[in-house]
Amino acid sequence: MKKVGFTGGALVVELGYSRDMLFFFDCLKFVCERQYPERNWILLTERLFKYYVRRNEVDETNELMQEAYDIFSKTSTKSVDFSEIIQDSWASELNISLKTLSDVFSRYFSAFFECYESAKLMYDEFKSYPDYQYEPIRIVLTSMPEHLDDMHRELIQYDALAREDSPFWLDSEGQ
Question: Where are the chain's structural domains?
Fold first, then answer.
């Protein structure tokens, strides 16, 4: 199974296996979308999950991630079904014995916030350069050599993904 993480600006943060990342997004859908369906969770559960965070949506996406952190901090791990992690013998770097979902996924939240800061800083610092392009927050493969290809993937390739297509980072192994 391949390892994945967040990137944004000049930063790449490896977080763990693709199935752990998938479980993070399953929890976002199960907990946040169900409790607060009126919020624009699609920025996290679709844009970040499958594509990338557009520059004009970066602040709203950051606010939603902060809101998700707050919701996860009030959500006991006892309220989530971890049976797939426990019963399947797939590798996981998640510590499901912690008290809340924000504890389990603390690295995911901090990595996102760091990549958010990096993406904003890089854009603000270099936007006046003629050839500079925004370096979006997105999920990438961090395992070599796939990481090298992923970091050079054009945004137009993400935009070309159909609704039924899997994200580039989600390997088929173990799914």
Answer: 3-159
